Amino acid sequence: SLHFLGCFLYEFGQGDKSVEDAINTSYGQTLKRFHGWITRGLFSIAIRSSPYKEDFLQSLAIDPNDAREVLFEQQILNEMIEHGSNINNVLNKITDFLY
User: Rounded to 5 degrees, what angle do the CA atoms 17, 3, 55 make?
Assistant: First the structure.
């Protein structure tokens, strides 16, 4: 769901959570209520394979040398917050229009 993606980008962009924690928080706020206990259990198992924060951030670098820049992490996190907020704003407007 796009709500999950927007929430994840925003939560992870705050910078104080691991990838796994941001996924858990986002899942709880968006998709969990639509899943039965089997799907919830499978999701719980699946997120345990999420990458470490540093590895995830490095994977977002176009050039591996970019990840070594002093401001790289903060810039990526700021962009995640911005994009997460934008996704959620658009989805809220669509929801308001439809309902």
Answer: 35
